[in-house]
Amino acid sequence: MMSRQARVLVVGAGPAGLTLAAELARSGVACTVVDKRQDPSTRSRAFGLQPVTLEMLDARGLAERLLKEGIAWPAAPVGDGVRWLPFDDLPTRFPYMLIIPQTDTERILAEWALDSGVTLRRGATLERLTDTGDEVVAGLRSAGDGAEEETRWDYVAGCDGVRSTVRTLAGIGFRGRDYPDSLVVADVRLSRPPAQRVVGLSVPRGMIALFPFPDGTYRVVVEDNLRMSVPVEEPVSQAELLDSMHAVLGGDYGLSEILWASRYRSRQRQADAYRRGRVLLAGDAGHTHIPSGGQGLQLGIADAINLGWKLAAVATGRAGDALLDTYQEERRPLAAGILRKTDLLYRFNTASSPPARALRWIGVKAATLPFVRSQVVRELSGLDVVYPSMRRRGDHALVGRRYPDTLVAPASVAGNGDGDGEAVRMAEMLRAGRGVLIDGGGPAGRVLIDGGERAGRAGPGWADQVEVCVPRGPQPLPRGASALIRPDGFTCWIGRDPFIGSARSAGG
């Protein structure tokens, strides 16, 4: 156990950085976030939280705050202007996409981080970074006086976006491709907003999607095949937006004002490694891709929640260094798969040849078939994420997946294992920031709770490492089996053998 409080520097105060910092601080790590911006961004950028992200943030007590400020939209547009992909059959408390500007998401995450004890320094840039093997020396420059300060940390996490300074200084490659086409995104006012509120239409000229914000403004996303060669430096005019909307949508819904607009080119890139010694990457610093499907924000928050409990455990001496390697083992292949899928989706949406248009028409029609629709919706929701590296031969199907938000009751470790409290959801059990042991009444639960020498590599002291509970309703467990759920909500073990359970849990 370390004799002093562990210290971690997080570079970047976006969603990934703020989430990671809060996760660390609430686990007893002294965490400082630095961001080169003097003030929070006023541009909404990403604007949707998918069901799995809402589940993760619910397990941090944030879902209700987010829901109050966003718009729950229960379906995704297919692209033909008529049909939709409904989320209502998803097995979650959040069967919808929450439309909320990233500015509001960041504000809520920043409040959570500060309430958790995070130090937030704006107007500070990272100039130097040296990993000595025992610590990381970072040179920070303040925008106020321009002075550079030498600081020392146990770990540094780069959550500083596509042009990550941390990644560059750590010498980690960022491989992939840049697309030649330029796309447009804008926040606008509409005097005659669509009755359906969310609109998505793909035609030979291109694709346009409209999404409402809680303040009555709209996000417009435009892929106009006639303007994809326009240089990104050229400003987006109202006349251009009007022309694209009329060509694709057949009208402009009373476009009266552009509040903000940007022309950009997408990238598909991924860092060669998410960890190099005491330096780690999360969010866009580790991966970036086209915004199709709205996966970038989801990936960044999920990176932070996966890394947060692991880094806290290692930095405070509760786990060995090898636990940090599982962060890359789990998250990097997942992001690589999403990059491949979004690349195919981009090519599918932007191809203009007659065969491509025919294939797109077939794809739109096929998306409404029940089986295909179910698969597409689950893919969008993120609920089917699985970490193959967590699984071993013979494991229960839930191992490596998020445990369902079932009802359980907190159990007394010193007692007989019966729940001595009211039933709560699994998400509420996870809010303590620790793992959860569901004692199914078999031998595994008893041995893991008792601890001592019988708990194998996990050692004594299980009572202060996990929240123990008993079932208070249907569980996806075999009779008499127990389950161990990690602090990020993923199932690492289900069974009756206590020694297998304790050994597997010791590695996270």
TrEMBL record:
Coiled coil: none
Database matches in PANTHER family: BINDING MONOOXYGENASE, PUTATIVE (JCVI)-RELATED (PTHR43004:SF19), TRK SYSTEM POTASSIUM UPTAKE PROTEIN (PTHR43004)
InterPro entries in the record: FAD-bd, FAD/NAD-bd_sf, RIFMO-like
Record flagged with keyword Phosphoprotein: no
Record-linked SUPFAM superfamilies: FAD/NAD(P)-binding domain
Segments forming domain FAD-binding: 6-341
Keyword Flavoprotein: yes
Positions of transmembrane segments: none
A Pfam family matched in the record: FAD_binding_3
Protein's name in the database: FAD-dependent oxidoreductase
Cofactor(s) the record lists: FAD
Superkingdom in the source lineage: Bacteria
Protein keywords: FAD, Flavoprotein
